[in-house]
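Lay summary. Proteins are chains of building blocks that fold into shapes, and those shapes determine what they do. In this project we predict the shape from the chain. Here is one chain we studied, written as its sequence of building blocks.
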Amino acid sequence: MKKKLPIKLNPGNTTDCFIVYLLTILMTDERYLPWYVERFIELEMGIFKGKPVHDFWMYYYEYITFDKSYVFDEVLDIKRFMYKDKGNIVPDVIEAINNSQYVMLGVDCFYVWDGETNHGYHECLIHGYDEEKNEFYYVDIEYGGWVEKTVSFTRIAEGFHACINDYNNYHERLLYMPRFHMPAFTISPNQSFNREPNLMRIFTTVDSFLRGSRHDVAGMYPYGPGGKGEYFESILWKGINIYKGIYEELYDFLKNNTNQDLERKFMIGMKKLIENKEALLHKMQYLHIHRYIELEDPMTEGMEKLIVIIKKAFTALGRYHKTHDENDFLNAMNMIKDAEEKDVLVLGTIRDLLAKSTKDFYGKV
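And here is the predicted shape, written in a compact code that computers can read:
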């Protein structure tokens, strides 16, 4: 027997695996677009202070809060996966798919990903199976895009079993993973979802991005070695302040950094910024097509120009990391400043447009 549940690859977000997996399921049905256009608008950028920096991130939702864990609750029915045998999870996964449930498993990448030589935890979204070939269908990233792949029943069983052992042996996993329903859960789209987009929610989020913020944060990170916690100091930039954080406070770090892992994380963050602006344009076009707002050509053109500028800055920074030509770096920083100015204008226009549309829409009730 063979069965595959529908997926939509590359659903407008390619840089946050956990979010991508869930959007891959959700975006197969247009009924959920009113929910989607309200979300993934605001961004947070941060660093853990080190020598000079020992970690960098760019997220849609603050990672150490519960917001990220429950953002999909309105549209997806997510339940803990009650498998019968952690040593052989295959029959339970097949049964779930036969019940039209997607399965998210924590796995040891060594057993699942082709060519992986290191052991390490990651999520794996399974959306189908082929009993004749003894294979599962799963979603994976390849060359910067998301693709459908197959993996043997045996490798999934081994990968999950290894993950469970890791989960039980390290205390911090016990604190961290259940927040995201891991190490195993099933996913079903909420078929009863049916509502219009909340314009006030979109307005509030755009307004918050435009206001921005910058904070110095210190405290005890709860998932340190041995589960004892670890003291940290960090800087958080939110919304429009991300640009200034890049071209001012991260200037020396970006110019002099030799850590390839941090370089990769920053470039992923820049890609997320690009996708964030592309998605915002598509969301405004959706609202225009469905007559929630009246989108004018100058605003659309402004957003398109903003996206081009950030893409050029991304390319220049990528080139600098290979050639170390200071002209590339300076050009990238100048383009980030230019993008900041244009984003203020674009977001201000969107905010005013949403304010008017919200007033008109609710004024008719």
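What the prediction tells us: The mean pLDDT is 88.
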